[in-house]
């Protein structure tokens, strides 16, 4: 980006280089599911002409990609669902509009799982996205196409979304950066399952967010994306994010976690968490491993599961609902596993949801108290690095292998849910590699609406432990 501003390279050159990489390398990775190269080249020419006139918008001439789930006028938005393979919106999502207004050159759209409902990215329309570090493994989901594209150099930035680690997990699996903003900070209109109308609704848990190859670029893209929808809160409100709490590493107070009561942490992930903790200590930060102020992690995992699942199945057809009722009735009262929690949450009444929402507010208050004593929390994103492709059509039958022991597939979501349930910002940061050479990341959770604080800490860590490394450079 600095070279572009300095006139050392043109947007047309950057765009042509990115397109050449995609055409050369993406057959093996399958990250870009909907290319838009003709319009990208035209936008690059326009950007160079604008820069020649003296314009300097935040992303002027920068090649970027967009998750398939965002509406882009003239391109299909399917969410990987075959019945909607021909759904072509007439208008851009608000975030696509903001990218274009900032001068970005959109190369195309990136692959997703069916309905965005998986920790992998594959569907019957566009196929499977592979991990650039090991093609037998997943790139993550649901923003797996975006993370793989960044790792391969298919553009400098991408936009994803996150409700269950959907941009943090792919960033962790592919060795790039991602930021889940504070709930409500980033407008989401036009990120809607087809063929639904693009309404300016407030989503529970789900956010749109930036992905990049450096921590600083995350902040650059968040500044473009952040702000209320001009159709609702934007009528009356202007956004002003507070600055990071500190600028120097030695001034940060950080709580480091590597254990969760509901699932073990794999050795490779634990090693990377410890590596970050050591870097924080070496930089003079105050690091603690325990705090009585931390909200109960087990209850947090249960609450997150209840809110996630009850919202996800709210529009299930009634015949499925009756089948669920029978299955829930057969559960033992003593079964308090996450699997049982997921099943019970599918049957939540509005009264049940309101009770869970109230307990969420108690957790939010607990986090406010914690962040009066700490500036950030560092912890895992998932218990393992990227796992092998698993396309079992029944996700409930899948298992995740943690150091040789198998656990229910969706139990691995509890670390991502730690920030999602209360709506806190969380930045995914590359933190090392596993013994097999796979990327391993951690997340930095910050105080609500203080997104610049975890992002600044991510920048400082990037300086001390390194950051993104392309697979062909590090394999």
From TrEMBL:
One of its GO terms (molecular function) is amidase activity. Its EC number is 3.5.1.4. SUPFAM superfamilies: Amidase signature (AS) enzymes. Pfam families: Amidase. The keyword Hydrolase applies. Residues 13-453 form the Amidase domain. Keywords: Hydrolase. PROSITE patterns: AMIDASES (PS00571). The keyword Transmembrane does not apply. PANTHER family: FATTY-ACID AMIDE HYDROLASE, FATTY-ACID AMIDE HYDROLASE 2. This is Amidase. It comes from Nonomuraea roseoviolacea subsp. carminata.
């Amino acid at each position: 980006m600095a070279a572009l501003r300095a006139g050392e390279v043109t947007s047309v050159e950057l765009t042509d280089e990115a397109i050449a990489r995609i055409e050369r390398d993406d057959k093996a990775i399958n990250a870009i599911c909907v290319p838009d190269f003709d319009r990208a080249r035209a936008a690059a020419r326009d950007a160079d002409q604008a820069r020649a006139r003296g314009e300097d918008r935040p992303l002027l001439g920068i090649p970027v990609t967009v998750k398939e789930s965002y509406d882009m006028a003239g391109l299909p938005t399917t969410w990987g669902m075959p019945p909607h393979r021909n759904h072509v919106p007439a208008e851009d999502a608000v975030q696509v509009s903001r990218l274009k207004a900032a001068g970005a050159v959109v190369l195309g759209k990136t692959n997703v799982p069916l309905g965005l409902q998986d920790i992998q990215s594959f569907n019957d329309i566009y196929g499977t996205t592979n991990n650039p570090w090991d093609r037998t493994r997943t790139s993550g989901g649901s923003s797996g196409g975006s993370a793989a594209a960044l790792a391969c150099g298919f553009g400098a930035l991408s936009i994803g979304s996150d409700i269950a680690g959907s941009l943090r997990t792919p960033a962790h699996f592919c060795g790039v950066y991602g930021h889940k903003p504070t709930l409500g900070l980033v407008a989401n209109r036009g990120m809607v399952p087809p063929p639904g109308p693009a309404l300016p609704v407030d989503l529970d848990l789900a956010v749109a967010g930036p992905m990049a190859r450096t921590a600083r670029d995350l902040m650059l893209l968040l500044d473009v994306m952040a702000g209320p929808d001009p159709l609702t809160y934007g009528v009356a409100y202007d956004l002003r994010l507070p600055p990071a709490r500190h600028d120097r590493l030695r001034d940060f107070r950080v709580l480091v976690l590597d254990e969760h009561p509901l699932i073990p942490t794999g050795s490779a992930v634990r090693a990377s968490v410890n590596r970050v903790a050591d870097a924080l200590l070496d930089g003079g930060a105050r690091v603690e491993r325990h705090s009585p102020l931390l909200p109960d992690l087990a209850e947090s995992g249960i609450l997150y599961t209840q809110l996630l699942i009850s919202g996800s199945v709210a529009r299930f057809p009634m015949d499925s609902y009756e089948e669920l009722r029978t299955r829930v009735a057969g559960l033992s009262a003593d079964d308090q596993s996450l699997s049982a929690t997921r099943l019970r949450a599918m049957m939540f009444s509005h009264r049940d949801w309101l009770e869970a929402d109230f307990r969420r507010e108690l957790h939010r208050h607990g986090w406010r108290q914690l962040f009066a004593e700490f500036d950030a929390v560092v912890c895992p994103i998932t218990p393992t690095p990227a796992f092998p492709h698993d396309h079992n059509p029944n996700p409930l039958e899948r298992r995740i292998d943690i150091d040789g022991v198998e656990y229910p597939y969706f139990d691995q979501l509890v670390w991502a849910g730690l920030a999602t349930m209360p709506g806190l910002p969380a930045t995914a940061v590359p933190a090392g590699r596993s013994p097999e050479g796979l990327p391993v990341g951690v997340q930095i959770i910050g105080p609500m609406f203080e997104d610049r604080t975890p992002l600044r800490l991510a920048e400082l860590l990037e300086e001390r432990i390194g950051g993104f490394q392309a697979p062909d450079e590090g394999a």
